[in-house]
């Protein structure tokens, strides 16, 4: 990893280890499993999940915490469709592990009106 390995990312779906897009993180640093604050809802978008902020009805989401470099961040932005406004990267609050640094996640930008709620863990 390069000297700019200073970004923390929380992944909760297909980017997790063992899932179809997990290979994009294989040369990065896995830190731990993680649990978000109860401020989020995860929807089933078909073959992938979509996370949205919902401070009223949210639950804690299970995922993984990674330290990634800027090249990987650029790749993940492409994979997650940030330019196409499918996802937007933003800060997420974790309760496990407790961490003082900013952690980011990809938040779904589409309509969730017709999507089923997944629960707290994408399996």
TrEMBL record:
Q: Which terms are listed as keywords in the entry?
A: Lyase
A GO MF term: lyase activity
Q: Is the keyword Lyase assigned to this protein? A: yes
Record's superkingdom? Bacteria
Do the record's keywords include Repeat? Answer: no
All copies of the Gamma-glutamylcyclotransferase AIG2-like domain together span: 9-120
Database matches in CDD domains: GGCT_like (cd06661)
Looking up Pfam families in the UniProt record yields:
GGACT (PF06094)
What's the family? Belongs to the gamma-glutamylcyclotransferase family.
Identify this protein by name. Answer: Gamma-glutamylcyclotransferase family protein
* Record organism: Gimesia maris
Q: What is the lineage of its organism?
A: Bacteria, Pseudomonadati, Planctomycetota, Planctomycetia, Planctomycetales
């Amino acid at each position: 990893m390069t000297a700019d390995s200073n970004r923390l990312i929380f992944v909760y779906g297909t980017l997790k280890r063992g899932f179809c897009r997990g290979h994009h993180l294989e040369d990065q640093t896995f830190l731990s499993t993680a649990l978000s604050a109860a401020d989020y809802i995860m929807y089933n978008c078909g073959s992938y999940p979509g996370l949205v902020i919902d401070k009223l009805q949210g639950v804690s989401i299970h995922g993984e915490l990674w330290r990634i470099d800027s090249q990987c961040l650029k790749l993940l932005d492409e994979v997650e469709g940030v330019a196409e406004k499918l996802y937007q990267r933003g800060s997420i609050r974790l309760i496990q592990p407790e961490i003082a640094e900013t952690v980011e996640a990809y938040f779904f930008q589409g309509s969730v009106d017709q999507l089923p709620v997944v629960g707290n863990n994408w399996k």
